[in-house]
Amino acid sequence: MKLFSPRRFGVVLAVVAALVPAGTTATGAAPRPPSPVREAASTLSVPNVDDVRGNLTLPTTGPDGTSVSWTSSAPAVITPTGEVTRPATGARPARVELTARVSLGRESATRRFTATVVPKPAREPLAGYSFFYFTGEGTSDGEQIYSALSKGNDPLNWTELNHGRPVLKSSLGELGVRDPFILRSPDGDKFYLLATDLRIYAGRGWDAAQRTGSRSIMVWESTDLAHWSRQRSVQVSPPTAGNTWAPEAFWDAERGTYVVYWASKLYAENDPGHTGDTYNRMLYATTRDFVTFSAPKVWNDPGYSVIDSTVLKNQDTYYRFTKDERNNTSSTPCSKFITEEKSTDLLDPHYGFVADCVGKATATSPGLSAGEGPTGFKSNTEDKWYLFIDEFGGRGYVPFESTDLDSGRWTMSAGAHLPASPRHGTVLPVTQAEMDRLSAPRRRSGPTRTAWSRTGRWTRSPAGSRPTRPATVTTAPSPVTSRGPAAR
């Protein structure tokens, strides 16, 4: 008598019965382990794919040894390696289908994403300056982000925003942020805010902060300077780093990527507890989206401690300003002040010397007793550059100016009225529309915020409330299609 149909059940019960211990019941074949290719394809994401305003990160490797290749339905808009050419100002957004092929051995799976590339914004004249800063470690909320607006195109006279209270507070990491740096994208309609993850107030102290401090930077995003994404923490420093201080970024047009740089004390590989002696040097990594970063590399290591680099560019030359962190002695009279260097390559490990002791008071010119945290910018109205230097332990930021970056000569500005207690931060030139948004009363409801999520989608919620996360974990509604042994 025929007891089973192999075609119907897909198993031979006689064989299974012989392998199952007595007292148990065979119910079918063991479940097949999940395919690493399908798993990799299902977790693949492209940040900001619904609102593309710059080059995309299209990963070429995945977990478990998988590789990823890409095709684009419109390579003139988005190349298979993620370079983006946006539609012209006033044009309609471009929709591009990106197809990822995830492979491992003979098996492969595909995943599709629909990217929306928004047109370039119209260029508007600059009408003033915004200022983002912290106020110090002496109060419970000093290590948060404050903001001010200039009075028109005068970078020496300011009005504090939000009644002098923080405009952004950290809810991650050490629950304090210092050294905020704000960057405008090359097309002008995307902003990234970076900050040090550090809270000294009632904290562990400066030595511990450089041995077992954070290896992450804090990141916010915005498209209008007034509404910000959820804060995210991104680990950028290696395990040998004891701290990750004063992150800044600069767009490198030749490489098509942002270069992010910061200061870290690097300890020996055989010193996992970071108990030895070492010094700060400047590191860097590259990113297109401030989500995925390259491995860090050393950028500036003169053999002694340096921190707080910032960069200005004039024509084809980069000018780097860095704090010499050595103890001030008769043999190192320019330590605890700013050194200026220059190069035609942003990532040059050997910048040329321009000047040291920048900002230091002399017998013939007023200046600082010590300086750190420089932030520089070009005047909106004159052929002039400004360099604000933080006189730590003294007046906080003090402005200097120069008409020739190659000269290394900086003169303290007269008649400045800065916000109360500004410490290491950033001055950013802004348009009138941006000034109007920044100066508008902060409301708990009304306009919407745009927020980045880990899946790359953008969601909206009332201003002043917490942005919502997407309901799904997929970047676009696309099935995973498999080929190969696991698909059979």
Name a few traits of the molecule.
488 residues; mainly beta; Immunoglobulin-like; Tachylectin-2, Chain A; 2 domains; four-stranded antiparallel sheet
Please provide a written account of the structure:
With 488 residues, the chain is mainly β. It folds into two domains: 37-121 and 475-487, Sandwich (Immunoglobulin-like); 126-439, Tachylectin-2, Chain A, CATH 2.115.10. It contains five helices and 26 strands. The chain has helices spanning 6-9, 13-19, 36-43, 206-209, 432-439; strands spanning 67-72, 94-104, 107-117, 126-133, 146-151, 154-160, 177-184, 191-197, 216-222, 232-235, 245-252, 257-265, 280-287, 297-300, 306-314, 317-324, 338-343, 352-358, 372-378, 385-391, 396-402, 411-412, 425-431, 448-452, 458-462, 481-483. The strands form seven sheets. The protein has a four-stranded antiparallel beta sheet with strand order 1-2-3-26. Strands 6-5-4-23 form a four-stranded antiparallel beta sheet. The chain has a four-stranded antiparallel beta sheet with strand order 7-8-9-10, with no helix packed on it. Residues 1-26 and 444-477 have low confidence and may be disordered.
| CATH architectural type of the largest domain | 5 Propeller
Number of strands: 26
Outline type: globular
Helix content: under 10%
Major sheet description: 4 strands, antiparallel
CATH class of the largest domain: Mainly Beta
Rg on CA atoms, Å: 27 Å
Structural class: mainly beta
Quick check: average pLDDT?
A: 88
